[in-house]
Every structure is written in structure tokens, then in C-alpha cells.
Design goal:
alpha/beta, 5 strands, globular
Length: about 270
């Protein structure tokens, strides 16, 4: 994996901003279950909710689908959130041991938070932290929260794409890994991650910024700008939920909204 310095993190954040309009984002995190043959005397420790034996690959990647950190070897029966808390990435983030730079003000932000921290994005299986933004629960969504979830998913899909590219390139992942030594299996997975990065850098095509409306997106938002702005009391506390609320308010401001999304909201408001 690449050596991650403060400057490297800033470069990754700039790339997320250019590609997916996610300011201060330094990566997407997710776990992938690697199918394995049952390890002798392991019992049901590696038997996951998908009904097969696996080891979990917990990884983060940059905006171009290149892995930046990986952790291999957690039992398949564990959830993504549990694996994240137990793995080295989660522990290093808790103690700020990855040389992540101090936060900066969001681009064109007119709010009252001067230093918004750099953060990773993840799905609902992960805990909400100041350095880890997850989507709002789907059971209580208004328009502002739907927009936030959509903006987050644009960046989060990079790790899903990275896993997909690796699985399509290395056919060993299409069947259970036929090995009964757990350390050997972990080494195979690490090698695939390194080779994936090598191929992406040497032969892959970098993603290009997309300023047009994605055809797969059909949110039917019907956003009323006056209603959203009436409740736009930006929180100043540094709690994780306060930072998420601040970012969701930031996303609906005209200067930071996706151009096509804001235009669509204006057209619906005028009609």
C-alpha cells in the first residue's frame, strides 16, 4: 500500500472534490467477504450471514478505486462495524495515528465552522464518527437527508467499484480459496490488493469529472428551497452527528449544491 502522508491525504481529498463533489473526503471504507474453504477446527467462526465461510477484507480506497489501506483476517461471522472497530485502521483512526491533516474550511462555506475535519465515507453498517461519515437511516428521511445520502453514495461507490474490479480481474475470487492455512489465505488476499493497485496505476483509466446528470438517478426530490433554508440553523458543536448535520445543510446551499440538482429544484419550485 502507498505511504500516506499529510500531503497525500490532501491530494486524495482534492480528487474526491473534483470527481464526486465531496469536500474534505479522504476515502471510502467497506468490507468484502472473501469466500474460503472451511478451515479445520474453526467451527462456525468464519460462517457469515451469506451462508458461506469467509475472511473479511476491510479496505479503504481513493477516488480512483486504488486501495490506500487494507486489513485482512477478521472472521466472516463479524459485522462490518465490528470488524472496523477491531481492525488496525479503526484503532489508528481513533488515536489519530495516520498523519491525517487538520481540517479546513469547506469550499465556499458561509457557515460558522471554520475547520471541518477530513473524513471517510461508509454505509450504515459503520459507526458515525467525526472522521467517518455514514448515511442517515432510511426510515426517517426528508429531502435534505436524501440529498446528503445521495451525495455520500457518489463517493462511497468507489470502494464497491474497487472490489468489483479486483473480483473481475482475479478469478480466484469467483470460487472458494482452496487453502486451509489462514495466514496463507491472508497473504493471497494482500497480494491481490497490491496487484490491483499496480494494474490500476499502470493500465487503468482515471475517472473523469462528471458534470452532467447521471441517467440512473431519479430521486424525484421536489425540494422546496424556502422550507429547507428556514430550518438551516447550522450546528457548531464538534460531535459526529453535529458535523453530519452541518454537512447536510452545506450540501443544499446554492454555492455547494450539484449544479443539475439545484437547477431541477428551482424549476420545480417555479412550476
Amino acid at each position: 500500500m502507498p505511504v500516506l502522508t499529510a500531503e497525500k491525504w490532501k491530494t486524495i481529498a482534492g480528487r474526491f472534490q473534483d470527481l464526486w463533489n465531496l469536500p474534505n473526503c479522504i476515502g471510502a471504507i467497506d468490507g468484502k467477504h472473501i469466500r474460503i474453504q472451511k478451515i479445520p477446527k474453526s467451527g462456525s467462526s468464519n460462517f457469515n450471514y451469506k451462508s458461506y465461510h469467509s475472511l473479511v477484507l476491510m479496505a479503504s480506497c481513493d477516488a480512483d478505486g486504488i486501495f490506500t489501506t487494507i486489513d485482512v483476517g477478521q472472521a466472516g461471522r463479524n459485522s462490518d462495524g465490528g470488524v472496523f472497530r477491531a481492525c488496525r485502521l479503526g484503532r489508528w483512526l481513533d488515536i489519530n495515528g495516520l498523519d491525517i491533516p487538520t481540517g479546513i474550511k469547506l469550499p465556499h462555506d458561509q457557515g460558522d465552522i471554520q475547520m471541518f475535519p477530513y473524513y471517510f465515507v461508509a454505509d450504515e453498517a459503520f459507526p458515525l464518527k467525526s472522521y467517518l461519515m455514514r448515511s442517515y437511516p432510511r426510515r426517517v428521511l426528508d429531502n435534505k437527508k436524501r440529498i446528503f445520502n445521495y451525495r455520500l453514495s457518489r463517493g462511497r461507490k468507489t470502494i464497491e467499484c474497487a472490489f468489483g474490479m479486483m473480483a473481475s480481474k482475479f478469478k480466484v475470487l469467483s470460487t472458494p480459496i482452496l487453502c486451509v492455512n489462514e495466514e496463507t489465505i491472508s497473504s493471497i488476499i494482500r497480494c491481490m490488493c497490491v496487484l490491483h493497485n499496480f494494474i490500476r496505476i499502470r493500465e487503468g483509466r482515471a475517472y473523469q469529472p462528471q458534470y452532467h446528470k447521471e441517467t440512473e438517478m431519479n430521486m424525484n426530490i421536489g425540494m422546496n428551497l424556502e422550507v429547507e433554508n428556514e430550518n438551516n440553523n447550522l450546528p457548531t458543536r464538534n460531535s459526529a452527528s453535529g458535523l453530519r448535520d452541518y454537512l447536510s445543510n452545506y450540501f443544499i446551499q446554492p454555492q455547494s449544491a450539484l449544479p443539475w440538482l439545484f437547477d431541477e429544484a428551482l424549476s420545480k419550485k417555479s412550476t
